[in-house]
Fold this protein.
Amino acid sequence: MEEKRPDPDLLLDQMRRETERRREGQLKIFFGAAPGVGKTYAMLEAARKKLSEGADVVAGLVETHSRKETEALLEGLEILPRKSIEYRGAVLKEFDIDAALSRKPTVILVDELAHTNAEGARHRKRWQDIYELLGAGITVYTTMNVQHLESLNDVVAQITGVNVRETVPDFLLDRADEIELIDLPPDDLLQRLAEGKVYVAELAVQARRNFFRKGNLLALRELALRRTAEQVDEQMQSYRLGKGVKDVWPAAERILVCIGPSPFATRLIRAARRMAAGLRADWIAVNVEAPGKVQPTERDIKGLAENMRLAESLGAETVVLSGHKASEEILNYARSRNVTKIIIGKPTHPRWKDKIFGSMLDEVVRGSGEIEVYVISGDKTAPAPARQKPVRLRTPAKEWATSALVVALCTGVGFLMRPEFTIVDIAMVYILGVVFIASRTGNAPSMLASFLSVAAFDFFFVPPYYTFVVNDVKYIVTFIVMFIVSAVISKLTLRIRSQAEAARIRERSTASLYRLSRELVHERGIERLREIAAKHIGEMFSSRAAVFLPNAQDKLEVPESAAHTFMLDERELSVAQWAFDHRQKAGRWTDTLPGARGLYLPLVASSRNIGVIGLVSDEAAEELNPEQIHILENFAHQIAMAFERSFLAEETQQALLKAETESLRNTLLSSLSHDLRTPLAAITGSSTTLLQQDDLLDRHDRRELVFTIIEEAERLNRLVRNVLDMTRIESGAITVKKEWLPFEEIVGSVLGRLTDKLANHQVTAQIPDDLPLAPFDPLLIEQVLMNLLENAVRYTPAGTVIELSARAKEDELLVELADYGPGITPGDEERIFDKFVRGPSAAGGIGLGLTICRAIINAHGGRIWAENREGGGVYFRFTIPILEHPPVVETDEETVRFKS
Amino acid sequence: MTGIKGLILLIEDEPQMRRFLRVTLQSEGYDLIETPSGGEGLSQAATRNPDVILLDLGLPDLDGLEVLARLREWSQTPIIILSARERERDKISALDSGADDYLTKPFSAGELLARIRVACRHKSMRDSQAEPVFVLDALKVDLAARRVFLKDVEVHLTPIEYKLLAYLVRNAGKVLTHKQLLKEVWGPAYADQAHYVRVYMGMLRHKLEEDPSRPSYFINEPGVGYRMRSE
């Protein structure tokens, strides 16, 4: 027998889910068949037990319905105050999620999972509150009745005749760590009801008549028991899975349900969900849209979106297919996804339609092959999905007028043609007119045009003229054919137009998404990305958009640019923050905090939470439809990816920089310790000798020692100066203070200051008399010249010439320093400007001089480079850009002599 | 030892610097009052009436510029600023607000003594009348006759060139900031037009210096101003 080892992937998945759960709070649901079975009571009992075990238990919200036993159990429990929410004049007491989150108990009791919150609360539904609590690591005890479960909603409605509005998605029940079924036989429950333990007297009578009929209670009880059993079964499965018992896992089933916009589809969805749950199969809800076939009404769009949402909330994958032949699309897709069962609705239209147009159902059944097809009947209680007229704006008067005018025009042309052409040609002119009208106006005006054309044709051109009477019967046929042809043409033209329109809209969103991603790819800077994202989203959804990024504490910050357009107050920002923290959209048109002015979408990238994108539209703006939301989410995804790329690049850069700084610091330290100690040793040695052996030294020796001290002190001074300069340059503390001045002046002061050092070299300076003023910082450029000259002195033999020259080029000053030394090792021309790079014969240099030069010249916008010159020696050249005209200096006339 | 050459007030907080200056100055025959703080320096200046004040800009109690401003409220005593290099830009404000000269640390004893001599001379010149004729190597400026000679050959200058030269000569040895020169020669409206001074200094160099790129009379003090060599 084959060894049954647990599937490692499944095991890992299970473990991952378990650890996630552990971080999250535990969810315990007290599940019942009907009100009054004692769920709240059981929950309180469990809470008291927990409390006695020492857990931190808080009653977040408990509805006692004034039942005495229940109230007694509440005693001794910490009760969280409720939040008052004013709604249309009434003050409603709701569960205070913020208080619960900040109190952060280990266990919290929140009654009635299916409750719908008052408007103004953070979430629409209480189960969303609970979901958030779980996310925050708080264990939640809650209660619910079977009739509130989404997937059983229709069944319950069928049994009881009561349509329950407040539903809870099934995944919450699946998510529950523990479900405790509170079971009470119907007779006992009715007994309790009669005793007034459930409702007060009058209410109880009414309830008994409606909901609490024995048949109802029996059916509900069965449902609750079955659902709980399913849940237990599932847990058993998952347990066995871990233990290597594999063969209980059924062959992978996949169910596909075809849905449309009608309310009837909800039945199909629920049926599919039940089947999927029973088979433990994945399921897919599919809608096929046939482009251009039928124009969807607004109600269709809404209905379909609602159905899709329902399917999603029940755990389905939702897919929209598009194609002319629905049956083909469905079957192809089903095959591509290995679907084993297709659920489809019974047709509601009359049979003759199938005879003419062919039956979709029939085609699916015939073409399904090995796939099983389940046909489910429509809901009789649901209103027949009467086709609503496509909602269209009232046809503007202008279109009617165009229609009439064009027909009149065709008549005019017909008159001109009458003498020369046959009557058939004139009919063609009318048809042309109808095509023109159909391409410009709506349905009704083009139909009118068809009709008018036939009438005008008859009146003006069919003998006898100017009467609708027709002599020849064959013209009747002509009229009919003419009317049909023009009507069909106008229909076709309209359809092409609407298809073109739809294509244009889709095109637009695709194109703008493409533009966005293209722009995003080319940008790196966070600010630029922000701008681009805000611009594109703003354009696409005609609203103001902005990207909010978190600070180091993960609190969102408002970009300055958006501060005034958004007018973000605390409340709006907290909505955005919520969207960020929970990685879910929030705000206007969502289920979370729908009262907000803006819609906030989280930007989630693969490795992190990037931020939030906010959209504010006009008060009157229409709600975004699911298609638009989908596009928006696509946009958000692109943006998030771009930000992530940018962040990653930045981080890499920083890591590199850090490593570089680290190694630089080490080089600097080792360099400094050597460079500082050498002169210090010489100074200490010389001065101690002077102090202790004063008698033994002759005048010459003493002078030697003193000179050593002076020289080494100067060297130290230079060293410290360079290190300080470098530090200042690197920290950005050096600012270039440009002034207009003659370069000659700098040369003069540098040569003056270096007189002693240059004593052993012959320095020539060639500066043209008419050299224009140049803009530079005299102190910094003096430093550059000093460093270059000191370098030249250090690296060239005594007695050689150093040539300094400057000349003006078009828009820059070019300074050149040429020496006759040994030159630079070829290939090192760039490297010598790097930090701590010294020449082979460096005496007393630290390898910062040229680096400082480069930094200063770069700060001036110029370039500095070195080249070996032919015949030995090096050129050092640098440029200072002169981009403006030098200021004019008015000089006075030269006077021959002053009168005294 | 009594002050033969003059009395110097040294306001400096570094003991090593004070020791070096004490030895140097006393051996040169100056009398010395030392104080490590600005506050005490101010009272010493008032009570002892020194001939020259050496003021360090980086003092622990008061800002050197503050001490300078308070001294200048009542005293005309020459003040030489001693400053570390990182306070380069402070030097201009110090000179503009009345300091006579500055020395950047580290400096040699020779430099210091030269500056003190110039300061003392200016003090005595202010007291007496200025010398009408200034002679330095080959350059001769007759301030009374307003004539300039180089190697006994008369040099022709424009009125502004002469005005500039005369101002430098009268303050020979002392640093003059661009601002001071502009105000004096062109008038206060030109105080920010440093390129005027620079262009005219260039013209003077070309007319009076043997090698304009290695001036020997007009010393450039980068970023600060100019100094006419005095000895």
